[in-house]
Amino acid sequence: MNVMMELRQARAEAVDAMKALAAKAEVENRDFDAGEQSEWDGLVAKMDGLDKRMERLEQLETATTAAPAGRTAPAVLKSGRGDSEERSLAHYFRTGRIDSELRAANNTIANEGTAADGLNAVPTGHYNQIIAKRDEGALFPKLGVQRIPGKGLTVNVPVDAETDLAFASTSEQDDNYAQTFERDWPALGTVAMTLVKYTKKIALTEELLEDEDSNLLAFVADFVGRSMAATHNTLLLTEARAGGTAGLTLDSASTIGATEIPELVYKLGEEYLDGAAWVMARGTEGLLRGLTGSSFYFDPTPNGTGMTRTLWGYPVHSSAAASAIAASAKSLIFGNFGFMGMREGESLGVLRDPYTTDGIVYLKYRFRAVYKTLQAEAIQYATHPTA
Length: 387
Fold this sequence. Notes:
Elements: H1 3-27, H2 34-65, H3 85-95, E1 109-110, H4 140-143, E2 146-147, E3 154-160, E4 188-194, E5 196-205, H5 206-211, H6 216-243, E6 245-249, H7 260-265, E7 277-280, H8 282-289, E8 310-311, E9 314-318, E10 332-335, E11 340-344, E12 349-353, E13 360-373, E14 379-383
Parallel strand pairs: 1-5, 2-11, 6-14, 7-9
Antiparallel strand pairs: 3-4, 5-13, 7-10, 8-9, 10-14, 11-13, 12-13
């Protein structure tokens, strides 16, 4: 650990000690006693001393790196241009500083001691990029899930709960205002959308960050993005199964019959068909593609045109978060996801923390999101029997 980092950590420890002293006195609704006041004064003096030392080191660094008067450093660019957000963020993760640096950059700490935990990223004559697993992207933009804006923890979304929409029969006005129009207004309900926080923490040793040459931070960014997509898909489909409508009980606990596909389609009201789509596990889709029937509903007639990603004329999206075919499972979801709402917090939060543990840099990620079904009848699902 360099001297500046040690000084910053010592200052942070002094601040924590001061917070503890102040909190104890406030909880007991009193002023400091003589011992506490002496400890407080000592901490203040220690902080002042640390601040002065850090200021001197910063001045020394500025003086050391500044070009002498009248001389200009040669214009030699030894690496790629650094004027991109990605390069700047990668350097911040490595060093905790944002400057003109031009380098790019399961419950375990990324380190050099174990091959799988980081040693495989340290160059010993190898390809300079980690080959990431390919995972599915987020479903909500593909399905047209409705984005719900709003500030604060909870937003109450008004929804139409009316079931009787018909006009009333009214006779011709044949006397002095005896016939009147029927007064009506739709019943309204609300759906509360309360944000929930989701987090991920990645721990890397300082040595690994200094020695790796495998575009490790680009891999980390991709890993976090794929993890966010998987989380969103799980939230979306969990809500569809919980807030949608049980449209159909399937005949079998272990398969799906050809006639059950159109049966579920016709459970969805015609007013929701424009924009409707299927979501299912990929294995479920594979089973359905084999159900040709007499009219080849589930795969085009084999004339060389190939398979399309539609089922009974509606788009099909597969996800690992969808339930597989099994007893009591809800393996088929069909509906108009424009009648599901999704809220997100302001943005993905990223924190580089080199202070929690000596020699380890923590990258902490967080975001908040919530999904809610706004009209249950717009999303239908099919359930397998218990046996």
